[in-house]
Amino acid sequence: MSANTVLLDFSLDPARINDEVSRKDIVKLCKESLEKYLPGVKITYDMLTTDGYLCMLSDAATIVTIRFFLQGLITINIEYYRQDGEEPKISFENMKSLENGLRIRLEAKRSKHLPPIKRGSNVDVYLTSSDERVIEYDIDRVLFDKRSEFQKIQIVHSKSLGNMLVLDELQNIAEADLIYTETLMRRGVEEYAGKEICILGGGDGALLYELLKEKPKHVVMLEIDEMVMQACNKYMNSICGDVLEKRKDDHYEIIVGDCMSYLNKYIKEGRQFDYVFGDLTDIPISDTPTGEMWDFIRLIQESSFKVLKPDGKFMTHGNGVSCPESLEMYEQQLNKLTPKVTYTKCTAFVPSFMEEWVFYQVQRQNTDDAASV
Amino acid sequence: MSANTVLLDFSLDPARINDEVSRKDIVKLCKESLEKYLPGVKITYDMLTTDGYLCMLSDAATIVTIRFFLQGLITINIEYYRQDGEEPKISFENMKSLENGLRIRLEAKRSKHLPPIKRGSNVDVYLTSSDERVIEYDIDRVLFDKRSEFQKIQIVHSKSLGNMLVLDELQNIAEADLIYTETLMRRGVEEYAGKEICILGGGDGALLYELLKEKPKHVVMLEIDEMVMQACNKYMNSICGDVLEKRKDDHYEIIVGDCMSYLNKYIKEGRQFDYVFGDLTDIPISDTPTGEMWDFIRLIQESSFKVLKPDGKFMTHGNGVSCPESLEMYEQQLNKLTPKVTYTKCTAFVPSFMEEWVFYQVQRQNTDDAASV
């Protein structure tokens, strides 16, 4: 049950759009083609715009706007309400015929139609990539949908990805995303056996679950949002096992609280780790590295190095490779850190993100060299 | 340079949409919110529809349609032409503010906005999944764009996926898709050393290139479209090496021609293979297994088994897991094949498809059992 918005467009010689006679012909051709699928459709309104012309057609339930842009483009938007189980007014195959037929009749240089955009349905299937691209997911069920003190928490089911955690409309992790966790921890490259580890965030439990398989001495996980853990414990067991259910054993402990206050506590106590994982919010996509979020990222990293052993590593996720500006800004921040650090990075295609993601491994600079002088 | 269509929607109590007074208030609120970004916007037209009401606003260059659906939904479409380098009329951040502000003022139960849909630009970034979902790719360049005798061939560059072959608007293979080829051939499971292999299609060269690394005795590849091979040889070397450039050596030969006539020739000659790969067009998504495409698929498979040794295997790709009906239909076709066959299947998430894909391995039924009787 949703409104369907069907978008079509055609590129034409601008001269034909500028000319009133040819414009009338084009409207006539469009109307004739549409009548096949929308019988009784009539022109209800038209107007000149500063960059062309607009014409509206309607059969009283479907609204069609045809817009002429002097730059050489015609856009057609078809919108109507589609009840559950009701066939679309123009099927996928018919949309192809409509597009191809009109392309030929209009002598268009190029044409395009998109699958219907579904609006207002109970299950929201549109999520956005790191660089603000729209992606329609094959989400068919919402399993969990609540707002915690900190964020909007949803667990949805995708046919391709399994259950998926969505926080504040951002895809976070899905059952298909083992590669995310394995790349974040650099499985097979880093040696975790016998090590002391601190996870900042990580409420989905996947990183903790995978790290424990490597036999570390102890992992402490600092997660602020109890509700995320409850939701993941219920719906994401294939990626987090029973770590969120049990909350602690001899080799790990989950602490519900603000990671900054615990980091400060550890700094005061002189507690030291071999690895600190930054598994918090994504680094922001803004033009300048200012604002609360960047301050928070800087603070987190500086505090993390205060609890890291001299050869300890800070491991974190960055952003999509399609956001080079954001990645560069993060790297500039790393270069300004105290103590001086070096970093390596690697990438992996993360299924639920639908993009190639960058992960960072940050270390104090030349600790061995300094020691050997 | 493209027309931008910005889509927003709000779910409201249907009673408020039915009521004329409250409808006028809502239009007023929408107009006030829009004026901030579109100064001078005026109501130019309105009409009652069978399922609600439509109101159009314009500042002479931007057209806004606000539609009320009695089912409890308001859709807002904002459309204007955006020149290259021109800032969007409503930025990403402002869209969030507009949506959140209106959601609160309208007391909406839910709301949503999508990134602007870009229409008529030189680089088409929208492709469709197997189940007709829209996916916006991070395509930034078109490297090759020609129509051959058989299909429209494009090679585009994606920031996440590298160069990508697109045939008739369908994503075919990208540089990031080694997993596709490795799953199709079941690397590490099947043993190709010393084997005789026939590839039907496979014009991108990736399967041939990967198979040759396994030291088969000989591979013959039957591809009909010379232009696809030329394009891939020029732009997809990271996945096909020099196999398309060289065309043959002691261990392989590429034949440009219709695979059916060559299969018939091999049947006549009694030539036999250990493996036949079906790397042709995707299996169709239609409701019934009829039509030319299904006939072709049946014919290809039956002919393939005529050139396969008794224990030979037919290896092919199926469809997305989000198309269970299509997969089921393909499996029904397999069950009807002569000779009787059995099949196994496996899946992999293919980056350029942005979905989990199913691959089939088909063999004659119980050949060993039959022989031992």
UniProtKB/TrEMBL annotation, chains A, B:
An MF annotation (GO) of this entry: spermine synthase activity
Pfam families (UniProt xref): Spermine_synt_N (PF17284), Spermine_synth (PF01564)
InterPro entries: PABS, SAM-dependent_MTases_sf, Spermi_synthase, Spermidine_synt_N, Spermidine_synt_N_sf, Spermine_synthase_animal
Positions of the catalytic residues: D279
A single GO BP: spermine biosynthetic process
UniProt cross-references to SUPFAM superfamilies, sorted A to Z: S-adenosyl-L-methionine-dependent methyltransferases
Domain PABS: 124-364
Keywords, ordered alphabetically: Polyamine biosynthesis, Transferase
Family from the record: Belongs to the spermidine/spermine synthase family.
PANTHER family with a match to the protein in the record: SPERMINE SYNTHASE
Official protein name in the record: Spermine synthase
Organism per entry: Anopheles darlingi
